[in-house]
Write a structure and sequence with these properties.
The protein is of the alpha+beta class and 374 residues long. 34% of the residues lie in helices and 27% in strands. It has 2 domains: 17-119, Immunoglobulin-like (Sandwich), CATH 2.60.40; 138-371, 3-Layer(aba) Sandwich (Aminopeptidase). The structure holds zinc ion. GO terms for molecular function: N-acetylmuramoyl-L-alanine amidase activity.
Length: 374
């Protein structure tokens, strides 16, 4: 039945019946289309153009509504709608087209012509480009550290673990139809070759990663491995904010390059976080980031059985420019005797990757990214 209906729909032409008082012609060489309303003398009319719609109300009756598809470079479609005492004509402009002021010309015996010239989009595109499908969500995965910076070192090296997990997350998300951008896909950092100073490389590297949170991307997840002086284990997930907890602050300084550089970048990020808390749109994004952190943590714990160290806010530099939900995951402690050894196992890293991917998918399917402000 549905097939039959679609066939009928294809066979029945629509939009052929323009009323006798309305016609138009494209003049591609001159770059405009002329719409002419040829009306009996004394017919009332008024018009209003706002944005991409030209509205003209004429005092002539129309038996029923019509939609016309003019196949024109300037007019996408024309709707004729019966309205009180007449007809409203709505001309929907193609992107880039615009309407000039209307003017009146004399018509044949007993009539006058109301003329609208619509300018074609620049470049005179004859055929409008095909309407693209809504794009697949784009997820940025950031494997922390790389190249000269190994990150935390214990039973494993942080930079190798984060890269391996990121590659696994990428495969899992791509299998679900998402697009994934990695900040790095091998053992390197994002600073140019000629920069020799370690701190300067680190600063450039972190800044380049942080800037991958803009553009047409939907989510950003930075992956890291923890280390602690006193034995500690478990998973914690962060979104951008300030912290009063000294241990969290020390972690942020370490992840922001450590030492003097780490302190400076942490301070800069704290002031970004302060501004974000005073900005409604940024605040909304922080709420979505927190929600993403909670979903990822929940899934990670479910997939691994690891210890829950909670969701917190902290001034991580890689999160500072984000206008999309952005989080930093600490998947475990490199120097914990059990957890460090688990991180060295491929099947455990696969569980971590599955948890991160599941958290991302939960949030995307819940539509959180769709309403996140830009
Ligand atoms: Zn790290």
């Amino acid at each position: 039945m549905r097939l039959l209906l679609s066939l009928l729909f294809l066979l029945v032409p629509f939009g052929w019946a323009a009323p006798s008082w309305l016609r138009w012609a494209a003049h591609p060489d001159e770059g405009f289309t002329r719409f002419v309303f040829e009306l009996p003398l004394g017919t009332a009319y008024e018009n209003q153009t706002s944005g991409a719609v030209v509205r003209v109300r004429v005092g002539l009756e129309l038996p029923e509504p019509e939609t016309l598809q003019p196949d024109d470079p300037a007019a996408e479609r024309v709707e004729l709608v019966p309205s009180a005492g007449g007809t409203e004509v709505r001309i929907y402009l193609e992107p880039g087209a615009s309407a000039k002021k209307p003017f009146v010309l004399e018509g044949p015996e007993g009539r006058f012509r109301l003329v609208f010239d619509l300018l074609h989009p620049k470049g005179g595109a004859a055929a409008p480009p095909p309407k693209p499908k809504p794009p697949a969500p784009v997820v940025v995965i950031d494997p922390g550290h790389g190249g000269p910076d190994p990150g935390a070192v214990g039973y494993v090296q942080e930079k190798s673990v984060t890269l391996d997990i990121a590659l696994r997350v990428k495969r899992l998300l791509e299998a679900k139809g998402l697009k994934v951008v990695l900040t790095r896909d091998a053992d390197y950092d994002l600073a140019p070759k000629h920069v020799k100073d370690f701190d300067e490389r680190k600063r450039i590297d972190l800044d380049a990663r942080a800037r991958m949170t803009n553009g047409n991307r939907n989510l950003f997840v930075s992956i890291h491995v923890n280390a602690a002086e006193r034995p500690a284990r478990g998973i914690e997930v962060y979104y951008l904010g300030k912290t009063l907890d000294p241990r969290t602050l020390a972690l942020a300084i370490a992840e922001n390059g450590g030492g003097e550089l780490g302190r400076r970048l942490t301070q800069q990020t704290e002031s970004t976080a302060e501004k974000a808390l005073a900005d409604l749109i940024a605040q909304g994004n922080l709420q979505f980031s927190k929600r993403l952190a909670e979903e990822i943590l929940r899934e990670l714990l479910g997939h691994t059985g690891a210890k829950n160290r909670g969701v917190h806010s902290a001034p991580f530099y890689v999160l500072r420019y984000a206008r999309i939900p952005a989080v930093l995951v600490e998947v475990g402690f490199a120097n914990h005797p059990q957890e460090g050894r688990r991180l060295a196992q491929a099947d455990y890293r696969q569980k971590l990757a599955a948890g991160i991917a599941a958290g991302i998918l939960d949030v995307l399917s819940g539509g959180a990214h769709a309403s996140a402000g830009r």
